[in-house]
Amino acid sequence: MHPFREPASPSRPCPRCAIGLGTRQVLDVRLDECADCGGVFVPGELVPRLLDPLDLGLEVVEVFPRGVPAPEDPIRYLRCPRCQAMMNRRLLMRGSNVVVDQCKPHGVWFDAHELRRLAELAADRPAAVAGSPAASAPAAAPDPRPVVAASLERRSLLERAIDALLGWL
Ligand SMILES: [Zn+2]
Ligand SMILES: [Zn+2]
Hints:
Blueprint: E1 9-13, E2 20-26, E3 29-33, E4 40-42, H1 47-51, H2 57-63, E5 88-91, E6 99-103, E7 107-110, H3 114-123, H4 145-168
Antiparallel strand pairs: 1-2, 2-3, 3-4, 4-7, 5-6, 6-7
Helix pairs in contact: 2-3, 3-4
This protein binds zinc ion (2 copies).
């Protein structure tokens, strides 16, 4: 672990703002972060750790600012801060509205609020998903099982999304 913060480096320009990315420490990992737009660039192998509530996920929810990912209009393709190649756009999880930008060899760009939103989904924070499918069961005594099932369903959706993401990397 490098003990010092790196200064913002113009050799790693923000894909949106072109200013040099700084460093954001999340417990034991360091990410490239833009001080201006709040986007972060994450090496692919760290994505599952940052979203896992049993690993770094809750820390991400703690340290990244709350907000709603902005829909992009018009759509822009972004360049990888490491190699300047055009990145691919990927919908990370159906229903999340989070479209990330990915460079196969180097990692994934999350715009402001996107990483936190996904970590919230993974941690099953209630604000994250609006409504579950209408209950088809007849109204009866409250039964905790549907809630648990919905939560498990969201977790498995996210796990599949992460698998897919790793498959792209
Ligand atoms: Zn930026
Ligand atoms: Zn790259």
